[in-house]
Here is the input.
Amino acid sequence: MAANIQDVLFCFGDSITQGAWEDGGFGKTLSHVYSRKLDVLNRGLSGYNTEWAIPVFEQCFAKQHEQKHVPKVRILTIWFGANDACIEPSPQHVPLSKYVANLRHLVDLVRSPQSAYYSPDTKIILINAPPVNTHQRAADLESRNPPLKLDRLFETTKQYADAVVTLGSELKVPVVDIWTALWKGAGEDEAALSKFSPDGLHLNAKGYAVLYDALIDCIEQNMPELHPDRLRYVFVP
Here is the structure.
């Protein structure tokens, strides 16, 4: 087991986080720029929504009495919504109000002094779901054997994405609004979102590049002391 010597940037989310280490993924780039500064930990869970993610987080994030024995989490990204926003009767669907409550609970687990997981040194960043390209998504699902019906809607996902922005403002937690960044990057044309996604749901290298730039900018604006250019090497040459 590695010694407790280097702090952590902890990425918690669904399949879009899990894919961060694919070619062109934002996790590989983060690992590079934070090399010898922060270890980047991927806890992406393909298929998960916030309801299923909470008990996993409670196993993955150290409790207060354990924190002195493990690396300190300096930055925590929470990126869910793509699955929560599935339409009924999908088992992944989480009602919007419950989705917001679940995100609030995840933040409170880390920020509340009454929580067993209280970590005052951890800075939290929320990331909202990217826009769904229903043209691509429908084609992908219809090509399967057997064919599947469309399980996500453009406007529904937007409602979930907007709710994250609102929650972040309320809780004073910074938000990476990847929904808006990709929508503007596509010229506000749903079909043009295909340049950022292979299937209308997940991100390709271009989509992850937009996310990476927005995330680094968020760090610069809200926690500049943790920007990779300002952190010193753990082992100084």
Notes: The mean pLDDT is 96. The CA atoms of residues 49 and 83 lie 5 Å apart. The first strand starts at residue 8 and ends at 13.
